[in-house]
Amino acid sequence: MNQRPITVDIFPAAKVIASDGVTKGDTLSFADELVMDDVFRIDADATLVPLNLVTENNALRRADAAGNIVHLDSCLTLMAPEGDTHEALILVEVEDDSVAEIFLLPLGELRPAVDYRLVGLARHTATRRFAEAASGSFGRGTRITMHDGHMRPIETLAAGDMVLTRDAGKQPIRHIGQATMRASGSFAPVVITKGALHNDADLVVRPDHRLFIYQRQDHFGAGRAEVLIKARHLVDHKTVLRRRGGFVDYFQLIFDEHHIIYAEGIAAESHLISAQTRHGLPPGISSPDHAHRPHLDYEVKNSLIPPRQAVSLLRKASTR
């Protein structure tokens, strides 16, 4: 079974301390041990840390050698001193039926050395919110190539519109998902600037959205010409950037199967329905997991990606 890794940016619970309230002095814990109106502060020296996960038998596991189960415990609502509210997920890693680690996954910008009051706690929304975090998405304004070769902004599309796919010709859109997120943490988009990969305009995508690229030369040593690569691995801070601040509108194109489509002229994946993402579908929209497709085997392993060189190598390797 194909396991699609997903990377989320987390704070270890050891870096999140109750600064006031019943649990003052304790580190962040799971829902059963939290007390409403307690105040939490992220250590001043804390930074977001990537956590790699895979789905196996409808459960999340760490993608590293430990392979421990990771549970989605709850969704917190935290209030900043200015009165703004932010959501964050609590993830609990289990080893031998005991808690190994606890993580805080911000769904917005949580700043170190700032006090946040716990004003909401929900268990039933954690799975849905994580599914949204796991979804590959295009930013508003992204132009999608239609079946007739014309390009249209993604926000103007509707279910039933025919889109050009690389593997199956023209295919109808089944559903379009949309979510507005704070452009920070795991939700801060990657911007592939005009021309970086022969694109005619900037392409804005979620960091884990995968692009499909044909190499005339195998610069990555992948053993094949065709590769899938996550947008986050192309960031060189020059031609491919992370855009943080404000909000971003994300759209997901859902077809009956997982396809490679064209966004701003770049081949990229459509939304993949899997155990990770199915719970993010809106009410009334149901779908079995998408069947395995050959292109899903083409993802480049992290170890093959040369830091800060990937985009220049791919631009050269895919020169028309």
Automatic annotation (TrEMBL):
Domain of life per record: Bacteria
Pfam families from the UniProt entry: Hint_2
InterPro entries named among the record's database cross-references: Hedgehog/Intein_dom, Hint_dom_sf
All copies of domain Hedgehog/Intein (Hint), residue ranges: 137-272
Protein's recorded name: Hint domain-containing protein
Lineage per the UniProt record: Bacteria, Pseudomonadati, Pseudomonadota, Alphaproteobacteria, Rhodobacterales
